[in-house]
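seq:
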Amino acid sequence: MRNTCHAIIILIVLASALLAYPAGALYDFEGLPLSVSSQGTVEGNVIAFGQYGLKNPPYELKFALPSAPRFARVYTGVWGGTEKYTGWADITINNKKKIRYLLNGDRDVSRELYESGHGIYWIAYDPTDLLTKGDNLITVTTSKGESGNKLDGRVYAIVVVAAVDDPAAGETQYWIAEGNENLHGEGWAGTNPTKHEDANVTFASAGLAGMTRANLSVLLLAGGKGQPDYVQFNGQYLGIPVRNASGQNVTDTGNEVSFDAEGGAGTPSRYTDMEVFNVTALVTETNTVRFIRGLDLDGDGTIATTGDAPEGEDYIHPVLAILTVTKPGTGTGTDFAVEGLRAGNAFAGENAVLEATIRSYGLPPAGPVPVTFAVDGKTINTTQVTVPRSGITVVQVPWVAVAGSHTITAGIAAPSDTRPGNNEASLALAAGTPPDLSVRIGSPFVKGSAPAAVTKSPLPACGACAAVGLLLVWYGRRRRPSPVQAGSLLLTLMLVIPAIAVPVSAETGAQEYTLPLQVTNSGGSDAPTFTVTVYLDGEKIADKRIDAGLAAGATTDIPVPVYVAPGSHEVKVVVDEEGAIVDSSRGNNLAQGRYDFPG
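struct:
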């Protein structure tokens, strides 16, 4: 029995790594999506303080709090120069604690670090216990100026968001979303240009009864003055337009001036823009914020970033979005929701892990609340959960999976819950043999045209073989190659063969294509969340995360946008490249070959 318990505990730890995709855990050029990291309701206010504009460190923010915060978050942005440079950044809070972050470029693995593009870092930390009523000081220093350091190390901003008690002010419901999206046009992504035109984040379960005001605050990094960009709230464009083009009001939110999007002179803030929008007339129960790099105003198929009338940004990074809904009075009560119900290792006869995300949209309860998991209507576990001050927690429980189809439920019971309708989540699940994911690549077609039949060209081996032969002859003439020389031969072959077999196309005349992919699960169990990674001519151009997973026996179509010059290109697609899920046959998780991109 004791060994069984140990096995289950170990399994839960392992499954946590498989099930959880920690925010900001890995560098991604295309960006790390904004997601809600903190939420809830406070009898008081949610206030933000900041210092904005790219400057050399040390970089300081001084601010005063009316009371010790119930919850707080501190953010800072650092410019690396490229994703290859490394260094460090320190955040010091009230001279009480210094937190050092190693900035490892495209090898970053910190949970509190979001890095995208060519080395733009956004760092998040919970300083709640270190902040006090009255004066506070945040200082950021970096490795800039250190001997041997190549990291640029300039600081974009310091922002503190704090929820503070003040019953006389009424109640404030809030959502804080953080990430680091890299919205960019073609030509900014390396050898194979890609485009990332927009990004969304959604704030759910707003309580509108008695609401008096709703504000949306956003922070953008690396925007350029004079290059338009847009913020939408529930489909409506925000901000005062700077001009009109073809009937479209043109806005420039990321114009290197903070707090001017709704009028006024604002505050100059180089490559940084903090804006606050009054969205009272637009707010609904579910609210979506959309960041847009630019618009094709003249209809020529591209978003121009130069000339007398630019249409968009070269690149811009949304990193923070905060929605607050205020109302007079207090006593809203608790409001819990159960979301994101998932199962890991749920194969017949195996020790599985069931996971659910608990979100608090109302006031925090006085103590723990019970979370109950059931399989086919039979309770298998009830766990007392203390919701952290962030208002979000993940609950995991073990389950020995039984072969067959099942309905999994997770529910929470809290006193005085104002909306019990969102207290339970369910999941239909098939448990059998492990999943067997495979991928198929269709023929690329010009965006907007009809898909063509699948075609595949063989790899051009002649040139590669000739190069290999020449290298072998050259090295063979040496009498006794040393280990270093032998290693050099191997390295040279590794470099030469891809260079010849996978030529890099000229970017002149590049256009947008759709690369159709099909992923099938031939196994006997549902596959949990997984990622499909796409390489073009040896360079990674996309990571498509399939959040819903894939049911046993099901197939899903995944259209991937590709921006490249017409001609023959090497395409490689890998399903679950990181090996995060159990797969009965990993040999069919990869597909590759040369494909014709029509002119």
